[in-house]
Amino acid sequence: MIKRYSFVFSVDSLAAPVRLDTGLCAVIPAWQKLNQHFVDQSILQERPLGAIASHPRLALVCHAYNVAPSFLKLVSCAIDICRPSAIVFTTDCTDKKALLLDFLEQQPFAPPKVKVVVLPNIGRDVIPFWHALKEISSCSDVFLKLHWKESPHLDCFHPQEDGRKASDVWSNDIFKTLLPSSRGELEEILSLFAQDICCIYPRPWPPVSDIHWHSIENLEHFSQLLTDLSLPVSLSILPLVYPLGNMFYGSVSFFAKFADFFIERLISPPEPIADDGTMLHANERIYTFLAASHGLDVAAIYPTNSIVSNVQAGQSLSSVRRAIVFPVSSLVDSSASQCNLSLPVLHFSVISNSIRPLTSSHCSEIPLKRMPFDFLIHPFGSAVFRVIRALRRRIVAKIL
Question: Residue 174 and residue 248: Cα distance in Å, rounded?
C-alpha cells in the first residue's frame, strides 16, 4: 500500500542548509522531518488516490558501465516484477554488450523490445540516458532509469562500519526505494503519472540528503542550461528537489521533448571527471525546474516500512510506503505579467555572467505566485533568515 501526501511549502517544511566551505545555501525540503515516523499535517496533507484511465507502459533504461553482479541481480528482480514493455541497456564496449545480451536471454520474461546500445563512456550515465530515450519513445509511457554508482570519494565522507563501499550502500538504498515489491505496488506508483506528475524520485539517501547546489560551478552550468532552453535564470529561486544519484521514474513523452537539446548541449568534462561542479551535475538538478515551467509536479517515494502519522489524530500507519507530491507548478504562474513574490536571497546564481545574490529584483523574468515565506521576509522572524542575511552581507562584501 502506498499512502500519498502533498507537500506544504512553509517554514516548518523547508530547510536552508549552508555549505561552509563555499558559503552557498539553498532552500530544500526538510528531509530530516519528512523522514521521521510522525509528520504533522501542517507539512504533509493526505492526497486522494485518483483514477487512472489506462496502465502506462514501463520501460527500463539501464546504464551498465559497471556491470556488477549485484546490479544485474537487482535488474533481474525489476524485470520479473515490472514486466516492462522495453529494456534498453547502454554500455561502452562490445564485450559488455555480449555479457548483457546473455543476461537478458536468461530472463524468464522477454519484453517486446530489448536493445543494448554501445556508446563511448562519455558523460557517465547522464548523456547515454538521453540517447536511450530515443529508443523507447514509441513503445513506452514511463521509464525507470537505473545504474550502479561507483563513487570512491563517498568513502571519505560516509565510511561504513561494516566495511562496505558507501556507493554500494547508496545504490542498494536507491533500488530498495524505487523497485516495487509487487505488480500491484507498481501500478500504484505508475498511477501517480495520471495526476500531472512527470517525475518520481527516490527519497534521498539520508547521509546525503542535505546536498543542494553544492558549488557555484553547478549553478553556473545550471543557469547556462536554463538560458539555452529559453527559461529564466530566476527559476532557480524555487526550492531544490532532485533525484540524488540520478535514478528515478519519468514520463517518456515529457523527457523526450528535451532529448535532442541535451544530446547536443551536454559536454562531458575531461577525464577524470570531477566529483562535483560539472555540466553533468547541473543536468541532474534541472528536472524539477523543467516540470514546474511546464505546469507539472514531481514526487518522492519512500521505501517499504516508512511510517506516516497524523499527529493530531494520533493514528499511525505501519508497513506502508509513502509518496510525497511536491506541487512545484503551483509556485509558477505563467499567466501573470510580473513577479509578485518578495524574497530575500535564497541561493545564488549567475546573473549577467557574474556571481550575484539572487534577490526578488531578478525575478521579473518569470511570474511566481506568492509563497508562504513571510518567515524569511521578517527581519527577526527566524534563525534561518538571520543565517541567510549574514551570508548575503558576506557575499556582497566579497563582490564589492
Answer: 9
pLDDT in tens, 272-327: 565 676 788 888 899 999 999 999 999 999 997 644 444 334 334 445 789 999 99
Those residues whose C-beta lies under 8 Å from the C-beta of residue 390, and which sit 6 or more positions away, are none
- Give 51's Cβ-side CA count (13 Å radius): 1
For residues 378, 25, 261 and 233, what is the CA-based torsion angle, rounded to 10 degrees? Answer: 40
CA distance 347 to 329: 20
Nearest to 208 by CA among 242, 163, 252: 242
Return all residues near 200 (Cβ < 8 A) that are at least 6 apart. 189, 192, 193, 248, 249, 250, 298, 299, 300, 301, 323
CATH-assigned architecture of domain 51-194: 3-Layer(aba) Sandwich (3.40)
Q: How far apart are CA 188 and CA 180, in angstroms?
A: 9
- Tell me how far apart the terminal alpha carbons of the chain are, to the nearest angstrom: 55
Ramachandran angles phi, psi of 368, nearest 5°: -115, 140
Bridge pairing between strands 86-91 and 58-63: parallel
As a whole number of angstroms, the distance between CA 327 and CA 329 comes to 5
Q: Cβ of 276: how many Cβ atoms within 10 Å?
A: 14
Could you tell me which residues come within 8 angstroms of residue 216 by beta carbon, excluding any fewer than 6 positions away? 22, 24, 277, 348, 355
Query: With 70 as the cut, is the pLDDT of residue 40 above it?
Result: yes
* Tens of pLDDT, residues 191-246: 999 889 999 999 999 998 888 887 788 888 888 888 899 888 777 778 899 999 89
Question: Residue type for 92, please?
Answer: D
Bridge partners, 61 (sequence order): 88, 145
Residue 144 Cα distances to 139, 252, 366, angstroms: 14, 10, 31
Place of cell 545564488: 348
Q: What is the mean pLDDT of the chain?
A: 77
Residue range(s) occupied by CATH 3.40.50 in the chain: 51-194
Backbone dihedral angles phi then psi of residue 350, each to the nearest 5 degrees: -90, 115
Alpha-carbon span 357 to 85, nearest angstrom: 47
